[in-house]
Amino acid sequence: MADQIANVVQRGTTLYVTDAKGKQLCIINHVSNGEFRGFTASTISVQRRDTIFTYDSTGKQLSITPAR
User: Fold this and answer.
1) How far is Cα 65 from Cα 11, in angstroms, rounded to an integer?
2) What is the DSSP string of the chain?
3) What is the rounded CA–CA span in Å between residue 13 and residue 63?
4) For site-directed labelling of 17, which of 8, 26, 38, 66 has its Cα 20 to 30 A away?
């Protein structure tokens, strides 16, 4: 089971993902036109134009979904 996401900090176009103990789980670099949308305990969402990209706690892309 992957570590749970407790916090995501955005610095510029980079997202730093950590667990509850402050351990860095991954770093997600998104292009400058991307917008951090939020996170759950297991996923991070970034919107780029009309598309939402979802990543897991290791930074692996899980899905691409049209934004509504």
Assistant:
1) 24
2) -PPPP-EEEEETTEEEEE-TT--EEEEEE--TTEEEEEE-SS-EEEEETTEEEEE-TTS-EEEEEE--
3) 20
4) 66
Spacing of C-alpha 30 from chain mean position: 9
Tokens of 11: 């610095």
Distance of alpha carbon 22 from alpha carbon 37, whole angstroms: 21
pLDDT in tens, 3-57: 999 999 999 889 999 999 999 999 999 877 889 999 999 999 999 999 999 999 9
